[in-house]
Amino acid sequence: MEALVCRKLGDPTTPPDSSEDSSLTVSTSHPIPKLDSPTSVRVRIKSTSLNYANYLQVLGKYQEKFALPFVPGSDFSGIVESVGPDVTNFKIGDPVCSFAGVGSFAQFIVAEEKDLFGVPDGCDLVAAGALPVAYGTSHVALVHRANLKSGQVLLVLGAAGGVGLAAVQIGKVCGATVIAVARGAEKVEFLKSMGVDHVVDLSKGGVIESVKAFLRTRKLKGVDVLYDPVGGKLTKESMKLLSWGAQILVIGFASGEVPVIPANIALVKNWTIHGLYWGSYKVNQPEILEDSLKELLSWLAKGLITIYISQSYKLRQANLAFLDIRDRKVIGKVMLTFDDPKSITSSRL
After folding, report:
1. Are 110 and 36 in contact (CB under 8 A)?
2. Which has the closest alpha carbon to 253: 236, 270, 272?
3. Radius of gyration (Cα) for the chain, nearest Å?
4. In degrees to the nearest 10, what's the CA dihedral of 162, 308, 211, 150?
5. Which tens digits make up the pLDDT trace of 193-222?
6. Cβ 167 vs Cβ 156: under 8 Å
7. 154 closest CA partner among 222, 214, 217
8. Residue in 85, 86, 89, 77 with CA at minimum distance from that of residue 43
9. Quick check: pTM over 0.85?
10. How many CB atoms sit inside 10 A of residue 295's CB?
């Protein structure tokens, strides 16, 4: 089968096989994974999503390390191609989606039956491949950890990216007043089209005055929940907008800088700080992920959320996808697909 293999840690924006030093290579004869238990299922992958975590995996900067060589990749969708003798919930031909620690940047992947989710009628299969990690992260953060309620004020940093756009939409489903922070006219206009209550354009000024002005017009006291996949200076500024009793969701550090959250201020203002490493739920509380993804797939089928795919690439173009992520050109999600990428456009369900 065809697979994108990380043979050495390094820059994934370099074209695969472009030199002996390239970190990535495209194998056309990678072994097709075999069913490894009576309840395992082999899936022919339709699409697989690139996340910032995948970029860090290849660089060797992710919190989990993998033995070389390895096939990167996490969330995916596809069609059941083969099933073990004890599989009862799926049959050959069923559309499914799921996530893995590694391995989805390939034509086939094997997963346990309990880790797969059927894709409901009415859901685009390519879009379902973008759902688990980005939307799963935001759903667990906002619904399970922060218990976001109708009428609360949600501030989303990095709002045009994968997890950010997911947080914006989930916030609206929950009935929150959503403030989105992004950079550049294209991203700002897109977020406005998604029904965001207020958008801060960082290319035109700082976050503090813009948000304070909006809060005054709505007669709101401050931000109740801060969703932060960015870190750095932006986190420090955003903390000045938080209400008493606010919650901070630490999602990631796309800025490259880990922020300092002063414990004394958290004490005085009764803030709750949630660290969220979504992947660890699979080991520690898998039932949370299962319930979360089932609800997200239901929302997707009902049209309550939208998966926006800004670009799709083939495996040999993976470096272009990583470039889009590194340079923050992505609005929503970027995908690797085993179909003609020209035939796949944004999925608005």
Report:
1. yes
2. 236
3. 20
4. -90
5. 999 999 999 999 899 999 999 999 999 999
6. yes
7. 222
8. 77
9. yes
10. 15
